[in-house]
Automatic annotation (TrEMBL), chains A, B:
<dbReference type="InterPro" id="IPR006603">
    <property type="entry name" value="PQ-loop_rpt"/>
</dbReference>
<dbReference type="GO" id="GO:0051119">
    <property type="term" value="F:sugar transmembrane transporter activity"/>
</dbReference>
<protein>
    <recommendedName>
        <fullName>MtN3 and saliva related transmembrane protein</fullName>
    </recommendedName>
</protein>
<feature type="transmembrane region" description="Helical">
    <location>
        <begin position="55"/>
        <end position="77"/>
    </location>
</feature>
<dbReference type="Pfam" id="PF04193">
    <property type="entry name" value="PQ-loop"/>
</dbReference>
<keyword id="KW-1133">Transmembrane helix</keyword>
<dbReference type="InterPro" id="IPR047662">
    <property type="entry name" value="SemiSWEET"/>
</dbReference>
<keyword id="KW-0472">Membrane</keyword>
<feature type="transmembrane region" description="Helical">
    <location>
        <begin position="30"/>
        <end position="48"/>
    </location>
</feature>
<dbReference type="GO" id="GO:0016020">
    <property type="term" value="C:membrane"/>
</dbReference>
<keyword id="KW-0812">Transmembrane</keyword>
Amino acid sequence: MIGNIAALLTTLSFLPQAFKVIKTKNTEGISLLMYAMFVLGVFLWSIYGYMIGDMAILVSNTITFILAIVVLCYKVHSIKKSSN
Amino acid sequence: MIGNIAALLTTLSFLPQAFKVIKTKNTEGISLLMYAMFVLGVFLWSIYGYMIGDMAILVSNTITFILAIVVLCYKVHSIKKSSN
């Protein structure tokens, strides 16, 4: 039970961050290195979940991966824009 | 092996974010709701890891909890400061 709630919270927590970045286009305080590492990490978690046949790990990390990629893309975009 | 690398990446990814927030004091693009949910989530993961006796889950989530709390505190502090 606690594990499911924990997974739900850590997975869905990236939803408000993705919304905020999409709405405000402001990624100033966000660390590019964090999201690069995190996106790679949850990608590997998804593969791991697939390999051991654990749908919970696969699904929760795939959702987090999609949300975190959104934030990462906005961060990369804003860095490119500011360097032009 | 993939699971350990994934855990390492997702855990340590919050280190550059904590450093960036401490250094720049800029939390503008960061979502308060995300970190509130995420901190609660990794806290529950730590409890879950303790309950099932899984040191990897306990240790990785405790580290993430500490790093994420740093970001959350800076975010709360900057909101309080801007509302004064």
